[in-house]
Design a protein that fits this description.
about 260 residues; mainly alpha; Ferritin; two-stranded antiparallel ribbon; about 5% strand; Ferritin-like
Length: about 260
């Protein structure tokens, strides 16, 4: 069982993922989620939270571009190298959209990204792949965990910001490419599966810790996550959120042919 701790309002909140089945019912948007940016940003605390969120996402996309370009060097074939290069280019395009949006709303993209550099750089330092297959698993599993977290938060955002966030979280081709390559490698050499399963579990823990740090270090974001701004999560919903993220991770592991 994974326990996630979130700082909110000066309190250290331990959140144990709920074992309940996620509610698939779609309910009409209300509150901030039903407003556009112009209306929602009139609340200065909400505006600050969104600037933080876009800054964190922008730095994450820039780091993903750098990492994928670097991982392309490990590719065993020119075709594989080209595939990763294309993914890297897509990540950079996502970064450009976030940077341009921050500029559009009168914010400095560099200033918005700066608070998140240390945590994200440390995550990538701790999870540097040792070979091609570990890089693929990280691109598929690690990035997807972060994307799941941001999608959960996006449900609470104004319509304009939500549309942008969901667009930049679109799969850049990681999923199909990674699944095909990893499954083929395991089929060719079954013992590889055990090593990659351990690696994926480590990525899960590190990714959730990263999400915790990103939120805990910024008051506006933590307040938005645990109530207080927009239509924030209550503690029970935070637990269910992390349960959904964990469940999605288990499904991805199965798609790779790995044990969660």
């Amino acid at each position: 069982m994974i326990v996630v701790r979130v700082m909110a309002g000066g309190r250290d909140l331990a959140i144990v993922p709920s074992m309940e089945t996620p509610d698939e019912t779609t309910t009409p948007a209300t509150g901030i989620a039903a407003q556009d940016w112009t209306a929602a940003s009139a609340d200065p605390q909400y505006r600050a939270a969104v600037v933080d969120l876009l800054g964190a996402l922008a730095y994450g996309e820039l780091a993903a571009f750098e990492r994928l370009a670097e991982d392309a060097k490990l590719a065993p074939t020119l075709e594989d190298k080209a595939e990763l290069a294309a993914m890297a280019a897509a990540e950079f395009h996502h970064f450009e959209r976030l940077r341009d949006r921050l500029t559009e709303i009168g914010e400095s993209a560099n200033k918005a990204m700066q608070p998140f550099g240390a945590a994200l750089d440390e995550f990538h330092r701790q999870t540097a792949p040792s070979d091609w297959l570990e890089g693929l698993v990280k691109a598929y599993v690690g990035d997807s965990i972060a994307s799941d977290f941001y999608r959960e938060v996006a449900a609470r955002l104004d319509t304009d910001t939500r549309t942008l966030v969901l667009a930049v979280l679109d799969d850049t081709g990681h999923a199909t490419f990674a699944v095909e390559k990893v499954r083929a490698a395991i089929e060719a050499e079954p013992r590889v599966g055990g090593r990659l399963a351990l690696w994926a579990r480590r990525l899960m823990g590190e990714a959730l810790s990263q999400a915790q740090r990103v939120v805990a270090d910024r008051d506006a974001l933590s307040t938005m996550l645990v109530g207080g701004v927009a239509d924030g999560f209550d503690l029970a919903e935070v637990g269910r959120m992390f349960s959904r993220i964990t469940e999605a991770h288990t499904k991805r592991m199965a798609a790779l042919g790995l044990a969660a």
